[in-house]
Amino acid sequence: MSVKITMVGTGYVGLVSGACFADLGHDVICVDKDERKIRMLLEGKMPIYEPGLDELVHRNVDAGRLRFSTDVAASVKDREAVFIAVGTPTENGSDRADLKYVYAAAGEIAQAANGFTVVVTKSTVPVGTNAQVFDISQKNVASGARIAVASNPEFLREGAAINDFLEPDRIVVGVEDDEAKAVMRRIYAPLLLHGNVPLLITGIQTAELIKYAANAFLAVKISFIDEMANLCEAVGGNVEEVARGIGLDKRIGPSFLNTGPGWGGSCFPKDTRALLATANDAGVPSRIVTSAVDANSARKIAMVDRIAKACGGELRGKRIAVLGLTFKGQTDDMRESTSLVVLPELLRRGARLTAYDPSNPHEAQHYLPEVQMVKTAEDAAEGADALVVLTDWMVFKTYDLKELSSVMASPNMIDLRNLFDEAEATAGGFVKYSSLGR
Ligand code: NAD
Q1: Ligand 1 atom 25, closest CA
Q2: Whose CA is nearest to atom 9 of ligand 1?
Q3: Which atom of ligand 1 is nearest to the CA of 86?
Q4: Quick one: which atom of ligand 1 is closest to the CA of 88?
């Protein structure tokens, strides 16, 4: 039986989850305070770039299962489950997660809810947050209504979000109330029915911790292979073969073993910081996660040194073309992208920059006012002394390298995603090519 669901927060997670819940047959309202986002959705336009989202949203809107609103109070009435999917950025002046949006949403939901409602936290939140959400709910809930809470962290990756949501490795639900547990089971029943998806019902604190532990572990895994790439360069070896050699070991697994210019994005930086803050507050600091965070910061600056070296040691006056600005390919998300460290440092050292990103992220110019943003990769390459591949956009692999190299002042590629190889680059007219760990 379908469940009446409201998503409070219609960003990357709220919109994708809401559209996927609707596709599973549930009745969904996605609500957001951001009028621009909701207006776009009502006009049939997507506020974010995510492969397959447009079609999914239209199909479910047409079927009457998915609606959009800016009115939180009206959208949480007569709903069985209200998900909180608002942002949890780092708090100003500390490493902790800023929970003001979560708590504000919890208060609004409680005041407007009627009947029995499960308030489900999908936002990534530190241990203890759901207990606070429960307290806020009890203080604000109208008489005659009842609210239970559940923690349901989300593991989708931008760029593969729909598939990740509909075919997850596991679903984690932290819930202690039996009626709420039954609602959560009904929500995920279609996924459990057709696939072999494990549903982990845990205590609330455990569910909260699983999300941070997962993200911190993945960040450590990337930083580890980045260090192995350095070692390969220093002593001889090919990091891709090392990654394959260790990844085939089932205890290690093949994913998150691609070396790169340092991890960034909307989750790993803020979630590792928040985990470290929680661990420090609890008096059990994590040396491993601390080291990964430090290694990652150093790596971004090391990438600038590498670009300088590939340009003959001096960046002053060099024209550098940058391909990719988002934190990874297949998304338009710029939050804490590695480009936001590497590009300002290149500028500081005197380089002139032209950049192209296939998603044309609308905040790029705001974050990087001194970078000339252009509409094609050829425009970026025109007259450049070096071409830096910074983001793993799949479309870059389809480019005709000859066209790019032929318009450059000096055909020199610094491939920080190992998207190409020496032979391809040489065949494509690049006289110099450098990559990571091979
Ligand atoms: P986002 O910034 O894209 O979306 C959050 C939305 O919430 C915004 O549109 C904002 O306007 C809205 N909002 C804030 N307060 C509101 C309120 N009171 N009522 C209605 N709307 C409100 O953020 P996101 O990337 O979707 O992330 C949301 C949460 O999910 C975060 O905790 C994040 O860590 C977690 N998460 C994100 C990803 C990801 O890949 N982006 C993956 C897993 C988990």
Answers
A1: 12
A2: 11
A3: 7
A4: 32
Note the residue count of the chain: 438
Asked whether the beta carbons of 262 and 299 are under 8 A apart, the reply is: yes
**Amino acid residing at 354:** T
Give the model's confidence band at 193: pLDDT under 50 very low, under 70 low, under 90 confident, else very high: confident
Helix, strand, coil percent values for the chain (each to nearest 5): 45, 15, 40
Give the side-chain half-sphere CA count within 13 A for 353. Answer: 30
- Rounded to whole angstroms, the maximal C-alpha distance in the chain is 74
Q: Which domains does the chain have, with CATH numbers?
A: 4-202 (3.40.50.720), 237-438 (3.40.50.720)
The structure's pTM equals 0.96
232 is a catalytic site residue: no
Distance 1 CA to ligand 1 centre (A): 28
pLDDT digits (tens, 9 = 90+) for 66-125: 999 999 999 999 999 999 999 999 999 999 999 999 999 999 999 999 999 999 999 999
β-pair type (199-202, 171-175)? parallel
